[in-house]
Amino acid sequence: MSTKKNLLHETISSLKQQRDELALKMHLAEAEAKQEFDETIVKLDTLTAEYDPLKDAVGESAENVVESLKLVAGEVVSSFDRIRKSL
C-alpha cells in the first residue's frame, strides 16, 4: 500500500511541477506577444501617418513610396499572425 501511495504522491508532484512550468511558459509567451504587439502598433501608426498624406498624391515617385508602405503593411500582417498563433 505504501508503494502505491508513494507512486501517487510522485505523480501528483510531477503534475504540479508540469503545471507550474507551463504557467511560466504561458506568462513569458504572453509577455513576448505583448511586446511584439506594441512594436507592431508603432509600425501600424507609422504606416498610417505616412499613408495619409500620400493617399491623394499621384505620380511615379509616389509609387515607390506606396510599394514601401505595402512592405510595412505586410510586416504588420505577419506580426499580427505570429501574435495570434502564440496566444
Describe it for me?
The protein has one domain. By secondary structure, the protein is mostly helical. The longest helix is centred in the first third of the chain and has 53 residues, at 2-54. The protein has helices spanning 2-54, 60-86.
Summed up, what is this model?
The chain contains two helices and no strands. It has 87 residues and is mainly α.
Helix content: over 70%
Euclidean distance between termini CA atoms? 43 Å
Large-scale geometry: rod-shaped
Largest sheet: none
Structural domains: how many? 1
Decide which structural class fits the backbone. mainly alpha
| Radius of gyration, whole Å | 24 Å
Q: How many DSSP-defined strands?
A: 0
Low-confidence segments:
none
Q: How much β-strand is present in the residues?
A: under 5%
Query: Could you tell me the mean pLDDT?
Result: 83
Distinct helical segment count: 2
- Could you give the order of the helices and strands? HH
Record keyword descriptors for this entry.
single chain, 87 residues, mainly alpha, 2 helices, rod-shaped
